[in-house]
Amino acid sequence: MRTRTTSPTRALATTAATLLLGVALASPAGAAQPAAPALRAPGEVVTTTLLDALDALPVTDEDRAGYVRTAFRHWIDADRDGCDTRREVIIDEAVQAPEVGARCALTGGEWYSPYDATTVTDAAGLDVDHMLSAPATDHRG
Prior knowledge:
Blueprint (H helix, E strand, L loop, with lengths): L7 H19 L23 H7 L28 H8 L6 E2 L5 E2 L3 E3 L4 E3 L13 H7 L1
Antiparallel strand pairs: 1-2, 3-4
């Protein structure tokens, strides 16, 4: 049986969420904040609300030029332990670890989805999604 470790992605997401929550809590509700100008001098302190900061982020269409899906192998077993990437993620994200059988067959276990407050007890019912789409990661190197 494997021991549960925190993935770097989960640790990064937790840190980002904590920082965003801290910014939101530091701004009193209803407090008027000056609108941030488009450009600031390097090192200049900017005071804004979390929502204004999010609204200021540029949004553009994804550029998929040059992306070829077949250039990416699907669910590989990079560490050659018998479990492909999908199962590795499912094992790592378990709230209660599943039993890992022959050919990485998963039985038991429990997973929690913070997105919809749902608990799942059958690994077959889980999807493993990308934080960024494959074309986006390909484009960014």
